[in-house]
Design goal:
GO terms for molecular function: DNA binding; zinc ion binding. It comes from Ignelater luminosus. This protein has one domain (23-100). The strands form two sheets. It has a two-stranded antiparallel sheet with strand order 1-2. Strands 3-4 form a two-stranded antiparallel ribbon. By secondary structure, it is an alpha+beta fold. 18% of the residues lie in helices and 16% in strands.
């Protein structure tokens, strides 16, 4: 099993500490990856493009945000595909947001 850790600052979820959590792989596409990391308040330069980076389910509404959630839970897919970028607090005073990514 691959060790996974959530790249969102102050989130301490890992595949060892919280094995019941789902971890969504951050896309490898440079532009999309940069958007994800910036919204998560991470400097894209701090995480190498070759690194398999993940965000845990706490930053998504898994059932609504994943394109293949039903197939994944039924065992028809080994990977889960995010159709909507996760939810991140912009500040302690703002609500969580969701941004739709359009893949070309």
């Amino acid at each position: 099993m691959v060790y996974k850790w959530c790249v969102v600052p102050q989130c301490t979820n890992t595949s060892i500490k919280t094995p019941e959590k789902m971890f969504v792989s951050i896309p490898k596409n440079t532009k999309i990856r940069k958007k994800w990391l910036m919204l998560a308040r991470r400097n894209p330069k701090d995480i190498a493009a070759s690194t398999n980076a993940f965000m845990c389910e706490d930053h998504f509404n898994i059932e609504q945000d994943m394109a293949n959630y039903r197939q994944y839970t039924m065992g028809f897919s080994q990977t889960i595909i995010a159709s909507i970028l996760g939810r991140f607090p912009l500040s302690p005073l703002t609500k969580l947001v969701s941004i739709v990514l359009i893949y070309n």
